[in-house]
Design brief:
The complex is a heterodimer. Chain A is mostly beta strands. Helices cover 0% and strands 51% of the residues of chain A. In chain A, strand 4 and strand 5 form a beta hairpin. Classes of the chains: A mainly beta, B mainly beta.
């Protein structure tokens, strides 16, 4: 099974900060990775698909990158509405979510 | 508008089964697979499996084989997940979703297993 490790588990940042969330796979997942945002009490929402493709309707401050085993979600300028937990999700071999990064405002 | 409407919360006893429904509306039901996802505080998000809403074919995460059974009723545009031989570890919120670029999710169903 492929394991997905997200870091950090909790991230505190200020409005306007550039924020980087990391996701590491236990083996090469060939860019078959999506990023989801989950706000409290809501279902997850797709932000980025296939590593670096912005889902329709998602603000352009969100971007994704990576290859092989290492992937990154970047928020270029943090907004208050970005407070949420972020999950990476691989579908290269089976299906696995990362443990999540909880993003808080400082 | 597109909606996946899930059935209500369930309270079940250990050893019993529950069947959760996910009714789709606002799109052609057979155009997208339905996936099921488990969420707990301890284990986070876990992918259970998906059903091909056109053919009824299924594909399960190994961990959930024997635990979850996915079915579909095309006539009512509804997908179902039955969870069997329930234990307290099955207590969770369960989502149905049309994942991928289409990306629509149900509101989640809380299943509580307790004697």
């Amino acid at each position: 099974d492929i394991q997905m490790t997200q870091s950090p588990p909790v991230l505190s940042a200020s409005v306007g900060d550039r924020v980087t969330l990391s996701c590491k796979a236990s083996q090469n997942i060939n860019k078959n990775l999506d990023w989801y945002q989950q706000k409290h009490g809501e279902a997850p929402k797709l932000l980025i698909y296939y590593t670096n493709n912005l889902q329709t309707g998602i603000p352009s401050r969100f971007s994704g990158s990576g290859s092989g085993t290492d992937y990154t979600l970047t928020i270029s300028s943090l907004q208050p509405e970005d407070v949420a937990t972020y999950y990476c999700y691989q579908y290269n071999s089976g299906w696995t979510f990362g443990g999540g990064t909880k993003l808080e405002l400082k | 508008q597109v909606q996946l409407q899930q059935s209500g919360a369930e309270l079940a006893k250990p050893g019993s089964s529950v069947k959760i429904s996910c009714k789709a509306s606002g799109y052609t039901f057979t155009s997208y697979y339905i996936s099921w996802i488990k969420q707990t505080t301890g284990q986070g998000l876990e992918y259970i499996g998906y059903i091909n809403t056109g053919s009824g074919g299924t594909n399960y995460n190994e961990k959930f084989k024997g635990k979850a059974t996915l079915t579909v009723d095309k006539s009512s545009s509804t997908a179902f997940m039955q969870l069997s031989s329930l234990t307290p570890d099955d207590s969770a919120v369960y989502y149905c979703a049309a994942m991928g670029i289409f990306d629509y999710w149900g509101q989640g169903v809380m299943v509580t297993v307790s004697s």
